[in-house]
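agent> fetching stored inputs for the FE2/S2 (inorganic) cluster docking request
agent> found them:
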Amino acid sequence: MYVCSCHAVTEQRVREEIDRGAATPRQVARGCRAGTDCGSCVRRIQALLGQHGARPCPTPRLAARLGLAAAPGGPGDGTAEAA
Ligand code: FES
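agent> prediction call returned; pasting tokens
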């Protein structure tokens, strides 16, 4: 089944990238270009990453907006350590 129709990338191909160590949508895109055109497949890629225990979002702020992690400024979002 295709995950990314813009680049004809299948779910299997995305899983291969995850198995090779991709942990973010950007890293998946680096390997197979999925998500680099219209972007409509990125949430699906994030879901596949989440199924594999990888961090599904490139930033804590985006993760919070999608309801996948702590809110920005909250515990564990990385901003408190940087301040
Ligand atoms: S469907 Fe993946 S970039 Fe358009």
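agent> quick read of the result: The mean pLDDT is 79.
agent> awaiting further instructions
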